[in-house]
Amino acid sequence: SGTSENTFSPDASCTRAQIMTFLWAANGRPETENAANFSDVAADAYYAKAVAWAVANGITSGTSEGVFSSDASCTRAQAMTFLWAAAGRPEVENAASFSDVPADAYYAKAVAWAVANGITAGVGDGLFGSDNTCTRAQIVTFLFTAQSK
To answer: Which residues contact 138 (CB under 8 A, 6 or more apart)?
Structure first.
């Protein structure tokens, strides 16, 4: 719904809490039985149900034991991994050919899937930009493209 009544803040960094909320909303805001057991996800936080849904569906397990890092900026590697996991972790035949995506990186299959499905083409010069922070506009564009596949 935006960052205020009449602004979306497209150029603002997208937090991990925000991307989970976007994903959850795009999937119909399903209810889950359990709460998210993270020390930084209060039961009454706007994103609590979204994070609980993401955990229940294997989309995230947090950044460390008991921590989700709700307010941390979401990186491009994390965003593609979340989208790929939400899509069911489909296999793709070819690896992505970005010099900054090692074959054994946790996000390598997710990036390959995203490229194969036209969700991203990287940031230019043969780079994916794995550690680059995603803006809110980039996240919703990735999500929109992924949902239309």
So the answer is: 14, 76, 79
